[in-house]
Amino acid sequence: MSTWSAEVVERRNILRMLLLAVLVVSGGYLAIAWVNAPTNATAAAANQTQLPLEDRTPVVEDRGGATVITTDPPAGSDGLGAIVAFSADGRPLYHNDTYGNYFDVDPDPPGSKTVLYVAGSRYDSCPDRLQAERDSAGDDGCAEVAVERVNLTTGTTERLHTAVTGWDIWHDVDRIDDHRLLVADIARDRVFTLNTTTDEVTWEWRAEEDLDPDSGGQPGDWTHVNDVELLEDGRVMVSLRNQDRVAFLEPGDGLQRDWTLGAEDAYGILYEQHNPDYIPSARGGPAVIVSDSENNRVVEYQRQNETWMRTWEWQDERLQWPRDADRLPGSHTLVTDSKGDRVLELSETGDVVWSVDIATPYEAERLGTGDESTTGRSTAALANGSVDATAAETDRTSKTGLSWLVAFITGPVVNGVLHAAPTWMTIGDLLVAGVFGITAVTGGIAEVYWSGVGRRLLERLR
Question: Which residues pair with 355 in a beta bridge?
Fold first, then answer.
């Protein structure tokens, strides 16, 4: 072997050692992260719910009331989703994973341990048993929707309504009275009132009546309407995720444009939000507390002088794609951190005073505190009006160019990758996994080339 050949072999061996070292270090890091990942409280609850309640052991910290949580994993009908409840002392109270995805959950009636929830499963190929029930023609897929009530203590379940949509599961259903439900129909871009006794639609608002057809998302997922709330004054508040807006409807008159919170692509206000809660004047409003999902924060806006002012904002290093925030009695806030894989309770000063690790939670309710934020007060009321406010109107300019790209990458791209990744992985883990993958591919290509096979292949291609 010539001196030149020996030097080449030595350089290759050094490169091999460097690549191997990177693989060992990054692989070891990922293995440690996987081993040390927090225990998923949903699985812990599932392991105990067949036992008598008195024999179950706490899996979360105790808190002053039972907590109900729904989960929405990145899947369709494989049973990964669940509704789970923990008693005030932290013991599993209830668990059910019949459906692929679970969304809204509300006490029904408030003060009880019976809840109303909407759940369902998505199918790439619509099963024969559902074909005839589809509410619209479309591709081969469909979604089965179930609206049910369950007594968390006895497990007794009552089916209130079923539907089969062309592609997605309703995300929110709120009770109006004994026979009527208010529905956010994500699949057909509408809000409607349903009589569960007659299955009659008694009122309906279609987004196409008031919104620019060029706004929002693509056909098939235009508005992604994910939340609806009947207000005490008879109006309806609705979350139009893909338009980055919380809108207010006057039944019979349509959209109240001067009340709209947010504007399309005005990400300084909201970026594809979830689950806004309205706080009326009687409790310090008008105010809206909302999960600003793609901005990875929870915020509150106060309406002053016909303008929405931001009066509260919270985020930490772990918060990723929050999708629910409820203001509790007193001053605490219950937050659902969907890709931080936890539900947490914040004090008035923003300290985390309680949390539970749970994979991909969608919504959480603290029983005994009313529905969502119906017993909570606004930040302005809690501070006796002394708050720093930022006018949302100053942020209404839509982001374009580089600012849009940065917001898109740090929001939907990162959160989308995390949603599809294993639940134990964080952003840091994804970066390390990327290094591991690139190193492995680089080493593989180098070995193929050095073996002579790569050179011969290149010569043939020339």
Answer: 344
* Mean pLDDT within 326-344: 95
Structure tokens at 2: 């010539």
Strands in 89-235 per DSSP E: 92-96, 101-107, 114-123, 142-151, 157-165, 172-175, 180-185, 190-195, 200-206, 225-230
299 by Cβ neighbours in 10 Å (0-12 / 13-18 / 19+) ranks as buried
The ranges assigned to domains in the chain are 2-37+424-461, 41-392
The mean per-residue pLDDT over the stretch 324-339 comes to 96
Answer whether 169's CB lies under 8 Å from 122's CB. yes
- Rounded to an integer, what distance in angstroms lies between the CA atom of residue 140 and that of residue 142? 7
The runs of H, that is alpha helices, within 290-413 are 379-382, 401-408
More confident site: 424 or 138? 424
Asked whether the beta carbons of 237 and 231 are under 8 A apart, the reply is yes
Give the separation between CA 273 and CA 292, rounded to whole angstroms. 5
pLDDT (tens digit per residue) in 268-316: 999 999 999 999 999 999 999 999 999 999 999 999 999 999 999 999 9
Strand order of the β-sheet with 254-255 is 225-230, 236-240, 245-250, 254-255
The distance of Cα 131 from the centroid of its chain, to the nearest Å, equals 29
Nearest to 265 by CA among 291, 290, 294, 299: 294
DSSP state of 33: H
Q: Which residue type does 363 have?
A: E
Superfamily of domain 41-392: TolB, C-terminal domain (2.120.10.30)
Residue with tokens 């349509």: 254
Residue 257 is classified by DSSP as G
Q: Is 107 exposed, middle or buried (0-12, 13-18, 19+ CB in 10 A)?
A: buried
Closest CA to 275 of 90, 122, 118, 100: 118
Please list, in sequence order, all residues whose beta carbon lies within 8 angstroms of the beta carbon of residue 67, skipping any fewer than 6 positions away: 60, 85, 86, 334, 343, 356, 364, 365, 366, 367
Q: Report pTM.
A: 0.89
pLDDT at 6: 77
As to burial, measured by CB atoms within 10 angstroms (0-12 exposed, 13-18 middle, 19+ buried), residue 119 is: buried
Q: Is the dihedral of CA 277, 155, 112, 43 positive or negative?
A: negative
The answer to whether 357 touches 342, Cβ cutoff 8 Å, is yes
Can you spell out the DSSP letters for 259-322?
A: G-B--TT-TTT-SS-EEEEEE-GGGT-SEEEEEEGGGTEEEEEEEETTEEEEEEEE--SS--SE
Q: How many residues does the chain have?
A: 462
